[in-house]
Amino acid sequence: MKEDFFVEQWMDTKALSISPSTPLEVAFTTLCNHAITTIPVVAEGCMQGVVSSYDLWKYIKIKGQKELVASIMNKHYATAFIGSSMHDIYQTPAYVIDGNTEELLGQITAKELLAFQKYMHHELTQIDNLMHWYELIFDTAYEGLTVVDDQGVIQLFNQAYSRYVGVAKEEALGKKADDIIENTRLPVVLKTGIPERSQAHRLQGQNLVVHRIPIWKDNKIIGAAGILVYEGVSEIYEVIQKMDQLDKNTRVENATTVLESSTLEVVKFENILGDSKALTEAKKMARKAADSSAAVLLTGESGVGKEQFAKAIHDASAAKNGRFISVNCAAIPDGLMESELFGYAKGAFTGAHRDGKPGKFELAHDGTIFLDEIGDMPFNMQAKILRVLQEKKVERVGDRKAIGVNFRLITATNKNLQQMVKDGEFREDLYYRLYVIPIDIPPLRERLEDLPTLIAYQLQQLAKRYKQGEKTFDQHVLQWMKQHHWPGNVRELMNIIERLYVLTDGHQITFDHLPASVKKTFLQTDYQYNHLKNELIEEVTKQEEEMIAQTLKQVQGNKTKAAEKLGMSRATLYNKLARYKLNNF
């Protein structure tokens, strides 16, 4: 609930009050002098009751002027508590009291209630104005937009979509999407929870490019949005041409930068899938790093995509026209590490190539060298690596000639290098050479909102590779994936999707296709969650029952006063009395 709705934001904290020992005449004079009709009776800061000018006038005639307020005060009055909503104030004055001590904290009179109503009117006017703008934007958008609920019923439908399908907006609202939109796959997206981006769609004889996006809330699909992006392929080609003009340095021939043994897969930052806050921050820092020549240290668990980040940094840097040389320090035997990195001269050792061989640093000249798993670099090699970084020169094994090299350095590790330095397992001087721009890549379990995007991409790639047609996930599979810990991160996710794709005969991958061990774990987790939730509900219910019984005892069964103390209406109290079988009060 919005803070502006709480009574403590509106109450008058300087409420005028009288004591129970005040004579009736003095109380009546006080009300008249302050032009009020009701005043609270307070003893030692705590509410005792209320008296009205009418009651005072009436009882002065009967009991006399010297009679005390305590004899006529009314003990039934409207109350509220800190945290109560102004929407629940139906009677004024309402007195805001401490639920435990009965201390009077403030009051809501007609003046405060009127001020709140004016505020609400202003808020509703702003919301209405904002909704009007949303409606205008929605309807004037060039793209066709529609939103359906979890049953596939159209809730929003703009004018552009109306023109595409030839159905009036008013006629479409409230109807099933598949009754209005030809060949729609929104019901499929509702079932799978997997977005379908940039998909070809045939509608009313037109070729369109569409997005179909599920809408999630509290780990449940509550609807889906359909967006008509482009009309035909000519518009797409036009956009591509404009994009090429924005970056004249980007040419198709640069997409085939040569690696030592194979063609490099060009990775751009937009190819790193995911819109989660954690991943977006990592990509933002990596883009800044790409604009400099500073050393970058990528950290993160195994399988998070450190090499993808390294390739994206290379492609966005000044070294992008050079080679991207990747070295896995953990995969090279210690005895071969030096020759692999620095190369060797002619006849350097038995079995060596007769013309010698350049090392990885030479191959990365005017490009980027990526030292993956740098934490596994042998300790004796670390000093030699440091010297290359300092001098930008290498000497091949068996040769005394120094060769100048110029390269962009990116390293990566899934180990805690700082701790390794403390333990004497990694050179401190090398560590600070590498630790210039550290970028931590978040594990998959910390960005589960990216799951649908990653799954959709992998399913599309698998369909192209295996030529078995597109397959979709049932949302129960996606729910399991959101509960899985993902120790292998994105690599593990991609492997599981491929396994399910290959082993599933039909076009729908369901919960039944998951391995038995996975299903068992999922069901156990689901059972434990529901069991815990039921236990919590039972505990809260029990506490509420005890609180109601205790309050009724305090007010000697007076249900009106009990309802006021509990901060609920009489109708609500009677319903709870029936539910908890407390009818003996």
UniProtKB/TrEMBL annotation:
What GO biological process terms does the UniProt entry carry, in alphabetical order? regulation of DNA-templated transcription
Domain PAS residue range list: 137-175
Give any GO molecular function from the UniProt entry. Answer: sequence-specific DNA binding
Any single Pfam family the record assigns to this protein: PAS
Where do the CBS domain residues begin and end? 11-67
* CDD domains in UniProt: AAA, PAS
**Claim: Transcription is one of the keywords in the record:** yes
Specify the domain of life of the species encoding this protein: Bacteria
Listed EC numbers: 1.14.14.51
Q: Which UniProt keywords apply?
A: ATP-binding, CBS domain, Nucleotide-binding, Oxidoreductase, Transcription, Transcription regulation
The record's PANTHER family line, in alphabetical order, gives: C4-DICARBOXYLATE TRANSPORT TRANSCRIPTIONAL REGULATORY PROTEIN DCTD, TRANSCRIPTIONAL REGULATORY PROTEIN
Record-given protein name: Limonene hydroxylase
Name the species this protein comes from: Virgibacillus dokdonensis
